[in-house]
Amino acid sequence: MNTFEMIPIACNMDAISEDQLASYQSVRELLQAACVAVQERPRAVAFRYPARPELLAAASEWISLERRCCAFLGFELSVAPGENEFTLQVGGSEAAKAFVLANMVPSDAATTDPVS
User: Fold this and answer.
1) Cα–chain-centroid distance for residue 107?
2) Which of 3, 23, 62, 103 is such that its CA lies 20 to 30 A from the CA of 13?
3) At residue 112, does pLDDT exceed 90?
4) How many helices (H) does the chain have, and how many strands (E)?
5) Would you call 88 helix, strand, or coil by DSSP?
6) What is the helix (H) or strand (E) element at residue 77, kind and residue range?
7) Are the CB atoms for 47 and 111 separated by under 8 Å?
8) DSSP conformation letters of 22-65
């Protein structure tokens, strides 16, 4: 059993202060609107975005806030050399992946086949 499987799947929105809530909602909306593709991966979901500075900053801020309320989630932010896109992978366990699919994937997101 890995560390992510030992942390309960529970979101505690009280962990984000009133002052931070507006920022949290703003960056989440920005990232949802800018998402160009979603791909299922083992134990995670990968979101792809254009590698624009404001989106990279928004992703970093969102990670900082999201990990407060959803301690069961792991995050990987990657930008490959020379690429015009970056990937934000969110998950950590099968249960965390299911949570992400149900709560974080925009209904109109372009999805690609799962990676094994």
Assistant:
1) 15
2) 3
3) no
4) 4, 5
5) strand
6) strand 74-78
7) no
8) HHHHHHHHHHHHH--EEEEETTEEEEEEE--HHHHHHHHHHHHH
Contact, 51 vs 88, CB < 8 A? no
Cβ(79)–Cβ(88) below 8 Å: no
The pLDDT of residue 14: 86
Digit-coded pLDDT (tens) for 9-58:
878 888 999 999 999 999 999 999 999 999 999 999 999 999 999 999 99
- With H, G, I as helix, E, B as strand and everything else as coil, classify residue 113: coil
Question: Which region holds residue 91: left if phi is over 0, alpha if psi is between -120 and 50, else beta?
Answer: left
35: left (phi over 0), alpha (psi -120 to 50) or beta: beta
The CB-side HSE value for 43 (13 A sphere, CA atoms) comes to: 12
All structural domains of the chain, each given as residue ranges with its CATH number in brackets, are 19-112 (3.30.1360.40)
- As to burial, measured by CB atoms within 10 angstroms (0-12 exposed, 13-18 middle, 19+ buried), residue 97 is buried
Q: In this structure, is the dihedral angle defined by the CA atoms of residues 98, 92, 83 and 50, taken in order, positive or negative?
A: positive
